Amino acid sequence: MQERQVQPLGSKKPGRVDVRIIAASNVPLEQEVRAGRFRQDVYYRVNEFRITLPPLRERDDILHLANEFLPEAGTELGRPCRKISEAAAQVLLRYQWPGNVRELRNVIRRAMLLASDVIEPEHLSVLPVDPCPAAALRGGLAPIDSSLKEIADAAAADAERQAIRRVLQATKGNKSEAARLLRTDYKTLHLKMKQYAIPAGQFRQ
Fold first, then answer.
1. Where are the chain's structural domains?
2. Distance between alpha carbon 37 and the CA centroid of its chain, in Å?
């Protein structure tokens, strides 16, 4: 790596290569080096020019990204582009986004499947929407009793059920295509349909 040389298998001598390595890590490599979990020599070789990407919750383009994902999801799911209401926008801004941009994209996709026109907070039911609730919201941690957890679980299950039904309706019961649109595998979709008692036959025409 340091000498910019590689030796192909079967070759007797190395050859020079003109490449630049771009590497990413979601853990602090300095700590990994100190803990002995990452080689120090490799760290100094790859740490030539560092770019620190802040987590999504610390960025000011959450709504911009969400609005960028709307037409993208609409095209893929075959549904018209929708708007995000002000109330739903506030939910998106308060959420901590532990899954960063990938999680935001998936939340928008699910909301597109559930909303008929404008995306409202109830279409983001996988997110906490109470203004002073749980660990996922900005402002620290707060205890959650079991009844609230049960309500949240039920809301998430209902949102998942509705999303599956909408996609099956759009694909006329084609489970392979529905699994692709939902970004899951066929077996998982089949198990979810069985869990929610959703017969694929009722969507076939």
1. 1-6+14-52, 54-144, 154-205
2. 28
Measured distance CA(101)–CA(82) in Å, rounded: 19
CA distances from 70 to 30, 88, 125 (A): 38, 14, 17
Cα 203 to its chain centre, rounded Å, is 28
Cα 183 → chain centroid: 11
**Alpha-carbon dihedral 82, 84, 87, 89, rounded to 10 degrees:** 160
Q: Per-residue pLDDT for the chain (205 aa), expressed as one digit of tens each?
A: 777 788 888 888 888 888 888 888 888 899 999 999 999 999 988 888 888 888 898 999 999 999 999 998 888 877 777 799 998 898 899 888 888 898 899 889 888 888 878 898 888 855 544 434 444 444 444 444 445 556 556 667 777 888 888 888 888 889 998 888 888 889 999 998 998 889 878 887 6
Task: Tell me how far apart the alpha carbons of residues 62 and 83 are, in angstroms, rounded to a whole number.
Answer: 15
CATH 1.10.8.60 assigned to 54-144:
yes
pTM listed for this prediction: 0.54
Gap between the Cα atoms of 83 and 118, Å rounded: 5
Q: Which residue has the tokens 């760290």?
A: 43
- What is the pairing mode between strands 5-6 and 15-16? antiparallel
